[in-house]
Design a protein that fits this description.
The complex is a heterodimer of chains A (about 350) and B (about 450).
Chain A (H helix, E strand, L loop, with lengths): L1 H19 L9 E4 L4 H14 L6 E3 L3 H8 L10 E4 L5 H9 L4 E16 L6 E2 L1 H8 L2 E4 L2 E4 L5 H4 L10 E3 L5 H15 L3 H9 L1 H9 L7 E3 L4 H10 L4 E5 H6 L4 E3 L1 E2 L6 H6 L5 E9 L9 H8 L2 H4 L4 H4 L7 H13 L6
Parallel strand pairs in A: 1-2, 1-3, 5-12, 8-9, 8-10
Antiparallel strand pairs in A: 3-13, 4-10, 4-11, 4-13, 6-7
Chain B lengths: L23 H47 E10 L2 H4 L7 H6 L2 H12 L6 H8 L6 H11 L7 E7 L2 H7 L16 H12 L3 E5 L2 H4 L12 H32 L4 H13 L4 H15 L7 H25 L3 H9 L4 H29 L3 H5 L4 E2 L14 H9 L5 H31 L4
Antiparallel strand pairs in B: 1-2, 1-3
Helix pairs in contact in B: 1-18, 4-6, 10-13, 10-15, 10-17, 12-13, 13-15, 14-15, 15-18, 17-18
Classes of the chains: A alpha/beta (about 350), B mainly alpha (about 450).
């Protein structure tokens, strides 16, 4: 009897809350997505909140994949308006979006370099993507056969490299930086081998499994998502090499130095020019149906794509963003201003 | 363990007993037992020493790392408050104050200090020595003293985060120019200002009054403190009455049968569930099913209340059990009803235990981030929350976000915010001890 009364009360309370909820409107923009774009998105959000009469957007760092999942879930105030991405939206994600009636605009905002760095007191590293692949892959080709990675020291790969054990601190698989690193550095390195290149044409899936497989014998250490922590660990251990975003190298030039990749140093100009091999494009996506419902989305896009934000001297460059070329900026700003729908 | 200083226990042996009353083998065993006890004491002291030294080391490094965040480097400059530029309409009202380009005025002030700098690029670098809050500082100065309008006055302006690190002595001047954020030229400018006695560091009040910001010199913990407060209020309002009533019912009124046993086991299990699970529950139930707003302290408080409930129930039940049965029997004996016994006698006597358990549960809730991740409270939020449904974040989340920011100056902010969080926890625990002492009664 008592239980019946209690469950009755609970049911009424639930119904009451459910009825009350749709009335909750929202006057601030909600942004989710990549932790790499997070520092830039928040800088624009703050500037936007400060310089306009709109509320400051709320920015969550959920990771690119998580952000797109939330973003594509549907239209309505309970869903985010903008998602940041450190890679382009995938076909499958775009399909989910379309199925849920979400029409989107793509805005490319700039580039980000991924660097391999060690402590300033350590040796200068001159690497190639081939060497990176050999140092970090789980399986490597030796005499035409794939074997478990036999390399223990950098000098085992190339005598010109330092005579030190391979110890690399990098991001875990949940990180967008890791995705980009395996795609840009490891795949490029794997393609240097004729047999793997042939495999990539025959069986793309198998090639990816090899190229993306990072060794698990202790030479690669997953150091968590916190890049500051990796910098601190490198400072303490000059024998280790770390993998992280360019902005952390930029801020900590007195503690760590970047390795050259194929002879190109990880410097601002080289990444901006596209010469540095491990660099990726950064994007954000806007939900078109929310424009007009949630105040300020159009103005936020305008702020993000203004010269004072993403220009060569803009405040985003201070935060570590590597800007698009002038011409690219003009094109993207134009299509973003029109909020053109993305089709794939 | 042979180098241990001798203790009186060691003297117990055949020699210590010349009467021969104790047989030698017994006395041997006795001395072994004493030795075992001494060893155990030493292990205990060693464990305590290690734990304490870790704690001291942790707090010492944190304070050492945090102090720069509590200071703000400033440069005193002659600032010209031009009447035409600030208030073109003639009236100095709020609209004019908001619209005026104080950032530009601040930059002009620093250009004025270095008239020899004319190159556009050099001027830009010079302007960057000033912090993002320089304009705000001028606005505040003029708001406080409108008489400054039309005059030139010496105003202390905040430095940028990079320049500030130099003033605080945290930049290695010996390093190569490429390896630091400040160029040789910028250091020379700062040194010139320093030689004129214009640079100083003062207490950074903004750290305690501002919300979050991407500019380290502007970022503060107030938004997170308010968010934590709102969240904990919701947690307390929900979990305290619910927890105490459940515990009293289970302990004093509920029949002892299979159902109550199942409930008991489940409550005890819930106390050990990882906190992220409560976040998932909150996402599924409060956000997706009830459609409550994301990032709101209301939802955060509800999730943390779920997490705290088992702790409060268990603590309350333990406190109720500790009340001697003689009290209940005496009250029943003079004709009190079951409810009167509980309300008038048992519960008041159990109060210290209940309060201690609740406060410790709340302290745990204050330090949680994992359950809040799922409901969107791990976010960059600038505005100070004003209500339970405004987007908000909490102190531990603020620490996490700052720890993950690339700017160097955030390292100190992280330490300082951690100290703020620790001091709140300390206050709560001290309150728990105080209340226990206040209400404690011995039988």
């Amino acid at each position: 009897m008592k239980f019946k009364i209690l469950s009755g009360i609970a049911a009424i309370a639930m119904a009451g809350t459910a009825l009350a909820s749709p009335a909750l409107a929202r006057d601030q923009i909600r942004i989710v997505g990549s932790s790499t774009v997070f520092p830039f998105s928040t800088a624009v959000a703050e500037q936007f909140g400060r310089s306009t009469s709109f509320a400051t957007p709320v920015v969550e760092s959920t990771g690119t994949g998580g952000g797109l999942k939330l973003f594509c879930a549907g239209v309505g105030v309970e869903h985010p308006d903008i998602t940041n991405a450190s890679r382009r939206i995938k076909d499958s994600e775009f399909k989910t979006c379309t199925q849920n009636g979400v029409s989107i605009t793509e805005v490319k905002i700039g580039y980000d370099g991924i660097v391999l760095a060690n402590a300033v007191s350590g040796p200068d590293l001159k690497l190639t993507t081939r060497q990176i692949f050999l140092a970090l892959a789980k399986m490597v080709p030796v005499d035409g056969k794939l074997v478990d990675n036999p390399y223990k020291k950098w000098s085992d790969i190339d005598p010109a490299l330092p005579d030190e054990a391979i110890e690399v601190l990098g991001p875990p698989p949940t990180s967008g930086t890791r995705d980009a690193f395996v795609e840009l550095a490891m795949e490029a390195g794997a393609e240097e081998f004729a047999e793997l290149k042939a495999l990539s044409k025959e069986d793309g899936k198998k090639f990816k499994a090899i190229a993306h497989g990072i060794r698990e014998d202790g030479a690669f250490v997953e150091a968590g998502e916190n890049d500051n922590l990796i910098v601190q660990k490198l400072e303490a251990n000059p024998h280790a090499v770390g993998i992280f975003g360019f902005s952390f190298l930029d801020q900590n030039g007195d503690k760590v130095k970047g390795a050259t990749i194929g002879g190109i140093a990880p410097e601002f100009e080289n990444i901006a020019a596209g010469d540095y091999a491990i660099s990726r494009s950064l994007y954000f996506y806007v939900k078109r149906a929310h424009i007009g419902t949630i105040p300020g989305i159009k103005e936020f896009v305008t702020e993000f794509t203004s010269e004072r934000a993403w220009g060569d001297d803009g405040y985003l460059v201070d935060k570590g963003l590597i800007p698009l070329t002038r011409q690219e900026r003009d094109e993207v700003a134009k299509s973003a201003g029109e909020l053109a729908p993305l089709s794939m | 363990m042979t180098d241990i200083a001798p203790t009186p226990a060691r003297d117990i042996g055949p020699a210590a007993d010349p009467s021969g009353f104790v047989r030698p083998e017994v006395s041997k065993r006795l001395s072994r037992r004493y030795a075992a006890e001494t060893r155990f004491r030493i292990y205990g002291i060693a464990a305590l020493t290690v734990a304490t030294s870790f704690l001291v080391f942790l707090i010492a490094t944190m304070i050492a790392g945090a102090w720069p965040a509590l200071l703000q480097g400033t440069v005193t400059l002659q600032v010209e408050f031009d009447r035409d530029e600030i208030a073109p309409s003639g009236a100095l009202d709020e609209a004019a104050l908001r619209k005026a380009n104080f950032e530009g005025i601040a930059r002009n002030a620093i250009y004025g200090a270095f008239p020899q700098v004319t190159d556009r690029r050099e001027k830009r670098d010079l302007g960057r020595l000033l912090g993002a809050t320089a304009g705000d500082a001028l606005r505040a100065a003029l708001r406080a003293d409108p008489a400054l309008l039309g005059t030139t006055a010496a105003i202390a302006l905040p430095l940028s985060d990079d320049a500030e690190l130099l003033v605080k002595g945290l930049v290695d001047r010996g390093s190569a120019q490429k390896e630091r954020r400040l160029s040789d030229r910028e250091i020379a400018w700062l040194d010139a200002l320093g030689a004129e006695g214009r640079l100083e560091t003062r207490f950074n009040k903004g750290f305690f009054t501002n919300g979050d910001s991407r500019e380290p010199e502007r970022a503060g913990v107030w938004g997170a403190i308010v968010g934590s407060f709102l969240t904990l209020v919701v947690t307390l309002v929900l979990s305290f009455p619910l927890g105490v009533i459940s515990a009293v019912y289970l302990e004093e009124f509920a029949p002892k049968n299979r159902w109550t046993e199942i409930i008991e086991v489940n409550i005890n299990n819930l106390a050990a569930v990882p906190s992220i699970v409560f976040g998932l529950l909150g996402l599924a139930v409060f956000l997706n099913f009830f459609g409550l707003p994301r990032s709101a302290p209301l939802v955060g408080g509800m999730v943390l209340a779920l997490m705290t409930l088992p702790t409060i129930i268990i603590a309350t039940r333990a406190a109720l059990v500790a009340v001697p049965p003689s009290i209940r029997e005496a009250a029943l004996g003079v004709g009190a009803s079951q409810l009167q016994v509980v309300m008038h006698h048992v519960l008041p006597l159990a109060t210290p235990g209940v309060l201690t358990g609740s406060i410790i549960g709340m302290a745990r809730a204050l330090g949680e981030t994992a359950p809040l991740l799922m409901i969107g409270m791990v976010a960059f939020i600038v505005d100070i929350p004003g209500s339970l449904t405004d987007p908000a974040t909490v102190l531990p989340v603020q620490i996490y976000i700052w720890a993950d920011s690339p700017e160097r100056a955030f390292v100190a902010k992280t330490g300082a915010a951690t100290l703020v969080l620790l001091s709140f926890l300390l206050v709560m625990n001290a309150l728990a001890i105080f209340l226990r002492k206040q209400f404690e009664r011995r039988w």
